[in-house]
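Hi there. Long-time user, first ticket. I'm pasting a complex I've been working with (about 734 residues overall). I'd like to know whether the download I got is complete or cut off, because the file seemed smaller than I expected. Thanks.
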Amino acid sequence: MKKSITFCLAAVMAFALFAMTACGGNDESELVFGWWGGDGRAAQTQEIIDLFVEQSDTVVYIEPVIASWGDYWDMMLTRSLAGDLPCVMQQDVARMIEFVAAGLLQDLRPLIADGRIDARNIPQSALDAGMVPGSNGIYAIPTGMNVTAMTYNATLLRELGLEAPRNLTLAQFMDLGREIYARSGVRTNWIGADPSIQLEIHLRAQGANLFDFSGPTPRMGGTPAMYEEFFQVIATGIAEGWHIRPEHLAGRDGAEMEPMWYPPGDEPEFANMRHWNNPVWSNMLTNAMNDAPDWMEIGMTSFPSNNPQQASFGRSSMFLAITTQADDLDAAAEFVSWFINSVEAYSIMLGDRGVAINPVIATAIQPLLTPPAARQAEFVSWTNAGNSSPFFAGRPEGAAEVVGTAGELQRLTDLVAAGELTPAAAAQMIFDFGNATVR
Amino acid sequence: MRKFLLKDNVAGVVFALPFIIGFLSFTIVPMLLSAYYSFTRFNILRPPEWIGLENYRRMLTDERLRESLFATFYFVFASVPLRLIMALAVAMLLFKSTKMMGIYRAMYYLPSMLGGSVAVAILWRRMFFATGTFNSILDVFGLNRNFAWLGDSRTAIWVLILLAIWQFGSAMLIFLASLKQIPTTYYEAASIDGASKVRQFFKLTLPLITPTIFFNLMMQTIAGFLTFNSAFLISQGGPFNSTNFFALYMYNHTFSWGNAGYASALAWFMLSVLAVTTGILFGTRRFWVYDGGFS
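Hi, the file is complete. Here it is re-exported in full:
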């Protein structure tokens, strides 16, 4: 009995050791591919993976690693420490600098040069987007293009006889907020889910950027005075009643409880808990249109700004990067190359990862686009046609603590909304905190 | 070799080996690493860089840390006593032996089994939304103002405290076991002497279970200081950091903000807070714990 138990224990330990294999660490061409996103993207991407495996002569299996945006980066951090990063990972310009600085992303130039990654149809500007300050390498290739955009409840505006024009100015936006609130009780959301994008837009309208990479070390861009109006809009909106109160956003959960349509009902107390607009990215239009109730038409316009054509910006999105922890570089390159050139892959995902960055693909899938994807493509095209200005949207190390999830910017906007902090004080605090934190 | 392997003490070591390996790998080694990281700037992606006591110095001026400590102590001081009172009260109710008692005990223990789950956290969050079930119940009594319980810094922490109190099951089971240890003859004698049920509880039951109360108090206090799930899943630390418990603050520094070095220093600070707290509790033990009891 003892012998058999000892044997069993030994067998279990041996199996555990055997099971601890690294990314692509065996002779078969197996890959691990990590991305962030919801259930819809997971299903689409799995379909794309299956298609690639079916067509590939060498790669027999791709293990998916999926998480929501926030959880994805937590997971990647811990996996990097364990030497277990996915062979191919979805990257974002906001996090790329950190990963490159840590030597975790492959420079793709050699793979592009020898043709293992076919980037002939990828515009140079898109390849440049995969570079980081202080390095000549190309560390990731975008699969799509997003622009700053604001979705809104077009049905409500039509009922009220109002319009949200493109290149909406800040004054127009605030007047619209006042009018909508006065006539329907529905409030306005100035900051959206990620206040840093609105703050970036606000600074760009004044000729600055949120982060300034021009010096030897990154710093906060602009001057404290330039930040003040961002907080002032919240304070004014709350004081006048037309801005959504933070407490009405607390406890919401998923698309079902999205404040553009939840809680439903004409009762004033329910209308007061909703807002008519949502500053987001252009690729969010598809989700918004799919998730909204049948009776609600979703519109899309630009972020409100004093200088919308200078402030709005496009951003290459959903980059594919090969990590330095990938053992089978050829297989990873084959997958990336196939992904960025496959009409079939883009026919599955359409606009989910933004508008296709590869113009050949963009043209090929044009007839297949669903109404949300077609509208998104049209809006991106309009924004890029002189209604935005180019911009490096990278974030320095430490930026997450300043403007990221649960960061200082979120805390300060909440305090301003609660009337516990003046806009001027908040502006000075975020500027000082940012300069002390980013590196 | 065969003889060696079949010795009792060898078999014992082999059986204990999974725990020993686990304890070394997942407790001792991480603790030692954490001690080292606490003296470094470490964002996980890059190798740690030695900065001496800088992380500990930062704690002295960290306003958010002060908010986090306040929220954590508030939560512990409110939730632990209430949870213990609830656990003891239910244990007293379930003390009697009836046919249905097994089912009742299982039912009351159920929240503790579900308590840490994501599903319950989401349910809790929805219950306390402005248009959630809790306000609907208040509506029956004409009290509903569509109040956003999770959106107000005065009430959000109580939503989490309520969840903690609801998860009284494990403490209740320990109290139940302790109550069963008290000989019934004591109660019979007390009844003959004319002691009422209330008097029996305060003069007999309570003193005899003080060692169990002490044990539960200790365990629940430590668990309270380390509360993470509810704040992470229900309130995300808000509003205004009113539920930004220490463990959540540490988590954000580690994973969201890339300050694993500072988070390690925070972890050691928390260890010292726990050591002092348990030390104080042990110090008070001789004043109120009756060690001659049966529990």
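A couple of notes from our side: Residues 64-288 of chain B form a domain with the MetI-like fold fold (CATH 1.10.3720.10). Chain B has one domain: 64-288.
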